[in-house]
Amino acid sequence: MKKVHIKKPDIKGTFHKIKNLKKEDIKAHWKESKARRQRILEERRNSRFAKKMQPVYRFMNRFSLVFHFLLACILNFFIEGISRHSLIQAWLYMIETPKVFLFNAYLIFATLMIVYLVRRRVFARILISVFWLILGITNGYMLMKRVTPFNAQDLKVLSDAISLTGNYFGKMELIMLIVGIIAVVIWVISMWRRGGQYTGKMHRVVAFCGLIVSLMGYVVLTDVAIDKRVISNYFGNIAFAYEDYGFPYCFTASVFNTGISEPAGYSKETMEAINKDGALNVSETSLSDEDKPNILFVQLESYFDPTEVEWLQFSEDPIPNLRKLYSEYSSGYFKVPSVGAGTANTEFEVLTGMSMRFFGPGEYPYKTYAKTKVIESAASSLEKLGYGAEALHNNTGNFYSRAQVYNHMGFDHYTSKEFMNVLQTTPKGWATDDILVPHILESMDTTKQQDFVMTISVQGHGDYPTEKVLDDPEIIVSGVEDEGKRNAWEYYVNEVHEMDKFAGQLIEALEKRGEPTVVVFYGDHLPTMGLEAKDMKSKYLYNTNYVIWDNIGLEKKDGNYAAYQIMAEVFDRLDIHTGTFFNYHQQRKDTKNYLADLELLQYDVLYGNQYVYENTGKPITEGHMVMGVKDTSISDIVEQLDGTYSLYGENFTKYSKIYINDEKQTSSFLNNTRIDLKEAELQDGDVVYVAQVGSSNTIFRTSKKYEYKDGALKELPTDPNDPETGRNAFVGKDAGEQ
Predict the structure, then answer these.
(1) Which of 364, 265, 336, 284 is nearest to 604 (CA)?
(2) 176-230: pLDDT as tens digits
(3) How does this protein lie in the membrane (predicted)?
């Protein structure tokens, strides 16, 4: 057998050559490399294979537009196959809705027109193809882990997504993802060198005009397709829309079609007629300060009454507490703007009184308008009548940019997961809702007057495991033959059962508190269980359930309401008339042009000239929110025998981080009164404080500052010019987009 001899690398000689390199040597090396590359290209062009392929190349160049459209169809097919997790489903989509398929293929084809602007056409085709395939793979992978497909707004909260990777991805999956990205990058770079160049005459002006015409053609074709109902520009359920209208169109729509377009007939005169001499600007109530009730809205994640499913049976009623409330207090169906996902959009409608139907397809105003601009809400409206405004959520503060949004809506405080010591989680890692009860009461204690409290729960969040994860479930589910689906339903129903317990605990705590109070419980959307309208008793997928509990003797008055109407309805029953949109619903519901004028009003307030505010001024001009309602503090520091430090204080959570001289330290949270420092070395004069830190190192709130001296900490005077000292300011930095 022939031995293979491996030459030992001359490391010393290599370093010697590098050390003695001259500028001329480098130039000569690059010149030689370029010449060698040219020789290789010439050899390839003049090779026997290349000469045989010349007629093929000429044919393909002559009919390149046809081949580009064929490539676009192939790419679209594989994108849909990846998104639907089935090539068979992609095939059915293609043959059952050919117009939609070809419409999406045309969009990919239009982007391939960029190829004619460059000589490296092979590389350009590869780059554009890889771009579309990466988008499709991202969408397919996201749909494996969550119910919402990939859209442009996800790119705006990339830091949030990274912070939640533990909820969706395993370590091996992350490793494979990184390896895959690196492999694709290396391959694309190699094709830059190996792809060759077009040798014919370039017609860049013609190519550029062709690109513009293709893109304009897509715009025209989109309008025609919408008019002919081939596609739609309203996504009631973004996941269903992606399935019906295709990924390329839906993703592109999420990029470019945002906000509200100017409605026909918009003018100052039209808005004056809608406002009826300032009727929408009033802020009044007949209630005395003593009679004003606390108003609590509790949004339950993925909640609805499971008995609404026609074929589902249970070993016992999964919602006994809420069922009792349904029978004794006002209740009914609650129409939401989405199915299976879209928590923030239901929340947006409830808080603002605005309808999502007028925004871009699949848009989340929390990620667009409300994230950067102040916006009128129930919080700002009730504050005019002397209410405090509090918000709570047992998930991270930056999720859906809520820290920014709530500040822009006029809330006084926002208590997020970073301010809670969550001890119990669901099998899928979401915080259980019982943690919210004490924090709701603490929020109500921050003010002497009545409070408006908005609570967003998370326990019912999907996805719902098809494997059996509950060893001894309280509720046994039947009526589902498929074992995986039965496991998913059993998991979901038992989480709903726990949410029902939370509702009972909250009502019990409020009854003990004894203050006049109104509480609205409602679900934000149906769970992702593949439900169809025929499965539901209401025969409608956009219905969840609501109930209005009170201890002030309100008349039981059942009815069905849209999410954007519920706040106005509750206010009206309390004889509260405040907020532009809530006043509008109270005055105009069920009247002629109700929805058309609502669209005009939303456009005027958000994107128009704000004629409706002309005589009274904007109802909110800036935020003033503080994160959390309790201060963290450090009372003592103890140096351990191994040289590490233990800090003792109050109100610590696992999101409490120690800063020394404004630098975050490596620390270990032990409990709500102790944090250990493992690597820090304190010197006399060092300044120490605690901060509640969210994703992307967003500092939400800081304690007072302390000076370390002689082994002890001394509290420093508060500097009124330092916005990050103490508890008197919202200090989150562009939450969710860092």
Answers:
(1) 265
(2) 767 777 877 777 777 666 656 666 778 888 889 989 999 999 999 999 998 888 9
(3) Multi-pass membrane protein
Number of C-beta neighbours around residue 212 at 10 A:
12
The CA-to-CA distance between both ends of the chain, in Å, stands at 61
SS3 per-residue string spanning 435-469: HHHHHHHHHHCCCCCCEEEEEECCCCCCCCCCCCC
Is the peptide bond prior to 719 cis by the omega test (within 30 degrees of 0)?
no
Of the pLDDT bands very low, low, confident and very high (cuts 50, 70, 90), residue 156 is low
> Tokens for 732?
């989150």
Q: What is the pLDDT of residue 202?
A: 80
Taking CA 171 as the corner, what is the angle to CA 167 and CA 173, rounded to the nearest 5 degrees? 90
Which tokens in the block code for residue 277?
A: 């001499």
For residue 183, how many other CB atoms are within 10 A of its CB?
10
Reading the block at residue 328, the tokens are 């004794």
Dihedrals phi, psi of 445, to nearest 5 degrees: -80, -10
Q: Give CA–CA dist 629/441, Å, rounded.
A: 11
With a CB cutoff of 8 Å and minimum separation 6, the contacts of 496 are 303, 306, 318, 319, 460
Side chain identity at 44, as an amino acid letter? R
Tokens 């005459």 sit on residue: 201
Residue 110 one-letter amino acid: A
Question: How many Å separate Cα 297 from the centre of its chain?
Answer: 21
CA distance 419 to 282: 36
Report d(CA 165, CA 630) in Å as an integer: 29
Check: CB of residue 393 under 8 Å from CB of residue 458. Answer: yes
C-alpha to C-alpha distance for 337 and 357, rounded to whole angstroms: 8
Distance CA 596, CA 569 (A): 20
Does residue 332 sit in helix, strand or coil? Answer: strand
Model confidence over 498-554: pLDDT tens digits?
999 999 999 999 999 999 999 999 999 999 888 888 999 999 999 999 999 999 999
At residue 432, what is the residue type?
Answer: T
Please identify which residue in the block is written with the tokens 């907020």: 579
pLDDT digits (tens, 9 = 90+) for 539-580: 999 999 999 999 999 999 999 999 999 999 999 999 999 999
Mean of pLDDT values over 479-483: 92
Is residue 626 within a helix (H) or strand (E), and if so which, with residue range?
Answer: strand 626-627
Q: Which amino acid is at 684?
A: D
Q: Give the SS3 label for residue 102.
A: helix
Residue 95 gets which letter from DSSP? Answer: H
Q: How far apart are CA 699 and CA 695, in angstroms?
A: 9
Task: Using alpha carbons, select from 508, 599, 580 the residue that is nearest to residue 551.
Answer: 508
pTM of the model: 0.81
Compute, in degrees rounded to 10, the torsion defined by CA atoms 177, 238, 738, 161.
-40
- C-alpha distances in Å from residue 378, one per residue of 145, 353, 389, 409, 577: 34, 8, 9, 8, 11
Burial of 405 (0-12, 13-18, 19+ CB in 10 A): buried
- d(CA 233, CA 219) in angstroms, rounded, equals 13
Interacting residues of 520 by C-beta distance below 8 A, sequence separation 6+: 296, 297, 298, 546, 547, 548, 549, 566, 570
Residue 288 class from Cβ within 10 Å (0-12 exposed, 13-18 middle, 19+ buried)? exposed
**Cα–Cα distance, 103 to 97 (Å, whole number):** 10
Separation of alpha carbons 627 and 691, rounded Å? 11
106-145 pLDDT, tens digit per residue, is 999 999 999 888 887 878 888 899 899 999 998 888 787 6
What does the buried/exposed string (b/e) look like for 549-574 if buried means 16 or more CB atoms within 10 Å of the residue's CB? Answer: bbbeebeeeeeebbbbbbbbbbbbeb
